[in-house]
Amino acid sequence: MKRIIVRLLPNWVLVALLLVLVFAPFYWIAISSLKTPPEVIRYPPTLVPQTFTLQNFQKLFASTDYPRYLLNSLTIALGTTLITVPMATLASYAVYRLEFPGRFLLLRLLVGTYVFPSILLLIPLFQIMAQFGLINSLWSLVVVNVTFTAPFSVWLMRAFLESVPYELEEAAALDGADFFQVLWYVIFPILRPGMATISIFTFITVWTEYPFASQLIIEHAKRPLPVGLASIIGQYQIDWGLLAAGAVFMALPVVILFAFVGRYFVEGLTAGALKS
Amino acid sequence: MHRRRAWLAFALLAPLCIWLIVTIVIPIAYLVQLSFTTTGIFGTAAEFAGLANFQRILGSERFWQSARNTLVWVIGNGLVQVTLAFTVARLLYRRTAFTRFMQIWIILPWVIPGVAAVIIWRWMLSGIGVVNYGIQSVGLVDAPISFFAQPSIAMATTIFVNSWRWFPLLTVILLAALRNIPTELREAAMVDGATENQTWWHVVMPLLRPVLYVLGLLGTLWSANVFDVIWLLTRGGPSGGTATLPIFIYEEAFTRFRLGSAAAASLFMMMFLLVFVVLFLQYGWGRDLRRRR
Questions:
Q1: Closest-CA residue in chain B for A46?
Q2: For the structural domain made of B71-211, what CATH number should be given?
Q3: Which residue of B has its CA nearest to A178?
């Protein structure tokens, strides 16, 4: 017994360190956002908050442009989702369910577009958007975000498609349904959870994207959240309570959504890396 | 059935393919064109500049500094993340309720926005931050450390923060790969008298090679592409010490307003990565195993 404890002890220590490394920063930012201003900057810091206040969040919404940024981010996310979901669902069905020449090449190319360093597209896309008058339009960000999300969404759909038995399609076809009827009445309804997963992935991408958003949008009032929050870092004398509230507010929706789709996310990622 | 009708497949794929051609292929072609012109920001007339942009970039000390920084960045991130990911994947290998929970939630640092991660770490690493408090109270240092004051320390700090974001992704992929390995193989080795470490090095590692190969390729491309964490933590400073190529390109275009030479720098970066990919595909560890599959 003693021996087992001695052998496992290093593991327990490592697990504890791991938990601290991964989760302590989240704990720290969350309690910092809920402390009163004097306590936030008190030194030595209080590891368990002594005060509780929501004033940082109130300030965030009342005296910064946060609500505006939030609206912009949601608009871009909605636009991107409306394009990515149908496009990726159709493509995914074709890639994983139909046979056609060049299928494997296409899959490879899709992986290629997913790993392609997006920063290399910043200069030319900026110029192209400028020529089409799309600089400072939320549409420009919808366009680039679709490019970032669609290839990976095709992958994400794979696991969901695999759960649809071929017999189902065949039965519908025997009953006289044509190809598009099968898609619309048989496949799409079953793929709804997959589409939801893609939507959430898209939302998270838009919610997070920084470099393109920082340059394609000029007007302050049209900025999405990441750029808006970054500008608050510079704009005010560093108010850590306020920034902590901003960070919490940005991380929270992702954390909540992740609770629903985290499993598919991780599966999609690992399947992508292991099977491609 | 309709499964074999190729034109249907092409029809379903057309929107995505056209979209990607318009937003990736055409822009890359345009990037090449831009690199030969003197283009300022916003509708300045572009004039043909020959190789001037390329010459400017090749003669720019800042460019070479950021190329070197990119190398340090990619290698540093690789080492830190691989070490962390292996340690953690080994810890989480057994299937329990705890590891099932961790396998999903560990990835949290990777899904939160870079801006949020930057705020979290800038706050924790500040002079009155909890990290400085911690290392002072256990007596590691006497005075607070300025984590962003010197180029080399700033680089190490930035690599750490970025690794914090990315190692969980590596961990879950490794974990899935580990679990794909039949336990019989490990057990057989143990029965034959191999120690746990021997089993690990001589049985498990060779079987992980194909996955490590893919991760080496993807991980390098991904970390070379990182922008927001570096930019928001340090702006590439102090004195360019943490400026990688994406930072250089961004500054060249949007603070020094030289789109033409930013385009040339992008092409150089693309070339560096391409050379890496080709070398990796040619000589990478684990290439032979993948081909056989």
A1: B130
A2: 1.10.3720.10
A3: B2
Task: State the pLDDT at residue A274.
Answer: 63
How does pLDDT run across B155-167, given as a tens digit for each residue? 999 999 999 999 9
DSSP string, B98-157: HHHHHHHHTTHHHHS-HHHHHHHHHHHTSTTSHHHHHHHHTTS-SS---TTSSHHHHHHH
Structure tokens at A208: 């997070």
**Residues B177-205: pLDDT tens digits?**
888 888 888 788 888 887 877 887 888 88
Which residues, in sequence order, are CB contacts of A225 under 8 Å at separation 6+? A66, A69, A70, A72, A73, A207, A250, B113, B115
d(CA B25, CA A113): 10
Coil vs helix vs strand at B229: helix
Instruction: Provide the ipTM.
Output: 0.86
Global pTM reads 0.88
State the Cα–Cα distance between residues A14 and B108, nearest whole angstrom: 19
- Would you say A240 and A32 are in contact if contact means Cβ atoms under 8 Å apart? yes
Are the beta carbons of A124 and B34 separated by less than 8 Å?
A: yes
Give the domain ranges of chain B.
71-211
User: If phi over 0 gives left and psi between -120 and 50 gives alpha, with beta otherwise, what is residue A46?
Assistant: beta
A262/B8 Cβ within 8 A: no
